[in-house]
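step=predict obj=Ionotropic glutamate receptor C-terminal domain-containing protein n=337
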Amino acid sequence: MLVGDVTITASRSKIVDFSDSILDNSLSIIVRRTANASPDLLGFLAPFSFKLWLTLLGVAIYGGIIICLFERKGNEAFRDRSIISSGAMSVWFSVGTILGYGADFHVATAAGRLFTIGLYMLSLILVATYTANLASDLTISKSQSVISGIDDIRKGKIPFGRIGIVVGSAVEQYYLREISDENRNYYSLKSQKEIYSKLLSGVIDAAISDTGLLQYATNQLYCNLTIVGEDFDKSAYGIVMPQQWLYKQDLDVNIISLQESGAIDNLTTIWFETSNCPDPSVISTSMGIEAMGGLFIIFEAISVLSLLLFLWTQRLSIKDYLLTSACRKKPSAQPDA
């Protein structure tokens, strides 16, 4: 008699006898848990393409030119300002309106107001689209997996040579029959344990095996591996015995008795359904500073440029202050004896 993870199949039943089913079985796919992508300092720019960002820059400058053309003579804010200063204020107004912030002055002409409506419409759509795309990118980056089920394997979403199959198992028979059309194009494995070692070392990307074995492994031993997709190819485990074994009927009666008492269900819950690994659904998915690192770097660069601009505009006042301070510290001349 042999007790183990032996699947009842027609080909095996020609050689040996099986007891009644001791546990329902099926096949599942195991893969590595998706690792967090390397932090991208410019990830906040991903929702828009490079060409679109350039287009927005061009629109902002174009809007500044139009506002300057419309408002320079009829707006009090532009009075007594040079063309460069007026142009800078107009570009500031255009950028602020597109970003949804606005500017510190208002347009005064009818043409300016009409053009501002266009900028507001542009802002409304762009800000909403950017927010939606950024949220979508962040969601996908947290949930992305190599495959999602057996259909992806059939479609060749990953190379067949990177799918691990234990040679001589019922899984191999299923793979040859249902997926590869008798073509042994998979990565051959010698044992169940080799599935986990090859996945962790990156030799294979996925493996097919009995659901019960994979549940135990992913819940108790290998927390960085996970089962993906729905199970398939339903079957059952049975106890192996010689054909015409004298005690087969007694064994079947005792198995049925254990099933009726709930003993097998209790063992299934303890060994296969109870997990010692952290639940990925409760792991924090908050955005780290790395994801927005580039944004803060750009902000710091703008801050430095603003400081330099302030020092340049106040250079004369700073120079006078330093000279005055130096004169105050200079010691008074001593009178002649």
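step=describe
The first strand starts at residue 17 and ends at 18.
step=end
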